[in-house]
Amino acid sequence: MAAFRDMEEVSQGLLSLLGTNRAEAQQRRLLGRHEQVVERLLETQDEAEQRRREILAMEREVAQNLLDAKEQVQQGGARLQQLEAELQKIGEEDTHLTDSLLQLTRELDELKEIETDLERKEREVDEDTTVTIPSAVYVAHLYHRISKIEWDSESEPGMIKGIHHGPSIALPLHLDSTQHSKKFISDYLWSFVDTEW
């Protein structure tokens, strides 16, 4: 029985030894699992921190885009107001120019009426005037018929040249007005005129 008891004690010792070994193994397993969980937790924290940084960066970018868009809207509003003011100014100038154009058109119409009235009065005066002024060609022809002198119109200045077609012969004329007085030249030319009608 003592052997049985010894055996039982050995068995108990073995069982407790086995139990201790099993507890150690289980503890080691638990520690390994704990390390894995801690590693996963640290990795998850790193990923969460990275995501948090990315979200913050996106939020900053969105906020900046929103500020830029707000500024563009404000600039667009200011530009719109400026364009509206310019448009109003151009409209006022256009109205002023239209008024000026209408005024000038009225003045032009009045001037046309005055011109038409003047032309009508000139026609009336022309119709009433019976005095006719002979043309230069007619006067020259009349002088030629009376004096029978054909003048040389291409002579030098100060020279009186021409041909007198008298009753019998043609007589050339050649007088220098710088050497003779006007009275002498007039008397000389009148001497060619035939007084017998």
Output mean pLDDT: 79
How much helix, percentage-wise, in residues?
over 70%
Radius of gyration: 67 Å
Q: Write out the strand line-up for the largest beta sheet, numbering strands in chain order.
A: 1-2-3
Largest sheet: 3 strands, antiparallel
Strand segment count: 3
Order of helices and strands: HHEEEH
General form: rod-shaped
Briefly note the structural class of the backbone.
Answer: mainly alpha
What fraction of residues sit in β-strands? Answer: 5-15%
Distance between the termini: 209 Å
Low-confidence stretches: none
Number of helices: 3
Structure write-up:
There is one protein chain. With 197 residues, the protein is mainly α. The protein is 75% helix and 9% strand. It has helices spanning 2-128, 136-147, 182-190; strands at 149-151, 159-165, 170-176. It has a three-stranded antiparallel beta sheet. A hairpin with a 4-residue loop joins β2 and β3. The N and C termini lie far apart (209 Å). The mean pLDDT is 79.
What features would you highlight for this structure?
mainly alpha, three-stranded antiparallel β-sheet, 75% helix, rod-shaped
Can you summarize this structure?
By secondary structure, the protein is mainly α. It is built from three helices and three strands.
